[in-house]
Amino acid sequence: MNYQEILEKLKSKINIIEAKEDLGILNATIDKKSIRDAVIYLKNELNFDHLNFLTAIDWIANLQIEVIYRFYSYQTKDKVVLRVKLERTKPEIETISDLFKTANWHEREVYEMFGVKFLNHPDLRKLLLPDGIEMPLRKDFTCEDFEKKPEF
Amino acid sequence: MADIPLQLEKGRETDEYILSMGPQHPSTHGVLRVVLKLDGEVVKDAIPDVGYIHTGIEKLLENRKYDQIIPYTDRTDYLSAVNNNLAYCLAVEKLLGIEVPERAKIIRVILAELNRIMSHLLWYSAYGMDMGALTPIIYAFREREEIIDMMEAMTGGRLTHNALRIGGFKYDLPSDFIPKLKKFISHFNDRVDEYEALLINNVIFTSRTKGIGILKKEIGINYGVTGPSLRGSDVVYDLRKIEPYSGYEKFDFQVCTGKNGDTWDRCIVRMNEMRESLKILTQSIDLLKEGEIMAKVPKIIKPAPGEVYAAVEGPRGEVGVYIVSDGSEKPYRIKLRSPSFSNLSVLKEIVVGYKIADIVAIMGSLDLVIPEIDR
Amino acid sequence: MGLMDGVDPVLVKKIPGGQIIISSLEWAINTARKNSIWTVTFGLRCCAIEMMAIAAAKYDWARFGLEVPAASPRRADMMIVAGTVVKKMVPVIKRLYEQMPEPKYVIAMGSCAISGGPFKYDTYSVVKGVDKIIPVDVYVPGCPPRPEALFEGIMKLQDKIMKQRLIKEAK
Q: What is the complex's ipTM, to 2 decimals?
C-alpha cells in the first residue's frame, strides 16, 4: 500500500489533525487521546508488527514536546510514522507497552530524558541516568560541570 | 526439567536469594549488571541494570557540525564501526539529496562486509572464553589481524576506522588492497570450517547450548529483536535484502536462518553469515570498476529543515539514525537506534527456569555490546 | 638503605647444578615483582578490544610476564583502566581499588581515562579523567592506543617498580 491508502484507512477510524508525506512515508499527527486506538488498529488490522523506535523532540520555541512512533510491517513492508504533540509544562500520554513490549524500555528512556509521564506503565523509573541529573535532553538544561566546546 | 525437591527435611524451608552479577565480571562483555533472583541454582527472575557507561552522546551531538559527527558514530559500537558510519552517512545524504557514485558504493560494501567478518570473529573468541575454551581466541585473532592490516592501509585506524565521508571517500583504495583481499579470500573458507569443527561441533559445547534459551518467533518480534538473534528463530528479516542500500541489490547471497530458536541455532547463523560475507567479497572484486569516488557536496553542509531515518543491517541487527534538522549547521536532534537495546530487553523471557551456568551461555549468544545500549 | 643502591648482581661461583650470585635484596624482590604482574580485567569501552588483541598471539604480553588475567581484584596487582569513566561507575571503581592488596599499580589507557577524551565537552555524566578518583602511575595516550604503545607503558611501569625501596629512609 502506498501512503495514500494507509491515510484513507486510518482516517476512517481516528481523527487525524495533520498528515504530510516525507520521502514517501506518511507522517500523521494525531491527538493524544486517540493514540491507543490508533496503535491497536495498526497492529491488528494493518499488520504493523515492528516498532522501530519511540523518541521525543523538544520544540522549545513553540513550548511543545513531540513524541514520535515509527512502525514497520514484516508482511507488507509498509512504514508509517505517528506524531503526538504535548504541552511542555505537563506532558502526559498513555503507554503502549502492553501492545509492543519493546516500548517498555524506550518509554523509560523518554521519561527520564524529557520528563514525559506515561500513564499505566508497569515500571516507570530511571534506566540510564545517575542520581542528581534531571531531564538532560531538554534545551534549557544546565548542570555544574557542563562545559561547552570552545569555538575557534 | 526434572523436579528437584528443594525441601530437604520436614519443617525446613528454602528462601529465594538475590545475587548481583556485577558491573565488573569477565563474562558480561562490558559494564552490565544483572540482578538475579535465585532459588537454589534455578533462576526465577533476571533484571538488567544499565547506565554504567552512559556518556550522553545525544546531547553532545547537538553541538557538533555534520561532518564532525562521523568519529562519534564509530565509538558507540566499536566492533562494527563502518556499519555505523554508513547508517549516518546514508541519513545525511538522503536529507541533502546527493547520489553517491558507483565505485564508492562498491567500496563501501567491501569495507562493511570485512567489518562484519571481524565482528563475528570477535564474538567467536569471546564466546569461547566465556565457556572456558581458551584456544579459539588465539586462532580467531590471527585472522582478525590480517583483516586489520587491510583496513588500516585504507582507513588509517585499527579499531575506530572513521572510514566514510558524506558523499563518498576522500582517498581511493591503496594499490595492494585487492591482491591482499584475494589472498585472504583464498584461505578463509577452510578456516571457517576449521573453527566450526573446533568449537561449535564440540560435544561439550553442544550439550551446553542445544535446547537452552529458546526464543519464540512472536516474542522476538514483539520485543523488537533484530539481527542473527531473531534469524535463529526462523524469521527471514535482513535489511540488505528487503530494503537494499548502497548497491546491495547487485549481489547474490542468501539469508541464513535457524530452525528452533535455541542458543546453538544462533551460533550456526553467525558462522554461516561469515561464509555469505565471503561470497559477497568475491563478487565485489569483479564489480569494481574505475570511476569517481566523491560526489559533489557543498563545502558547508546545511540541509533544509526536515527529518530522516536511515537503517542498515549491522552484525547485531538494525542500526538506525534519526536526524531532525532545522536548517543550521548543527542538527537539532539526533537519535541513534541501536540493536543491543532491544536485544537485551528480551533477557527475562529466555533465561527464567534455567540454571546459573546457562545464563552466561544465553547472554553470550545474544552478542551484546554495552556502550551501544547506554550511548 | 642506600648502601647497595643500584648494584648489579655479581657472579661469585659456578657450581655444578647452579650458580651463586650476590646482590641486594631490593634488586631480587623488585625483579621478581616486575616480571609477574597479574592484572584485573577492567575493560570498559573500545580500549578493551586492544587489550584483548595484546593478549592474543601477534602481540603477546605473556613474554613480559603478564600471563594471568586474574578476574578477582583480591589477588591482582595491577589495574588497567581502559575506557570512559562515568559518574554512575565511580563507587564501583573505588571499591575495586580498595580491594586490591598492596603494592598496587594503575595504568590509565586511552584518552578517555586520561582526561575525558572526545567526551570532555558538552556532557553531563563523564568524569574528566580517572585520576580524579584513584592515583595513577602511568598514562598511555591514544584513541585507542596501539598495542606497541601499551607495551611501552608496561615497560615504563617496570622501570618504576625497579626503583622501589623496601625500607623508607628515616626523617
A: 0.92
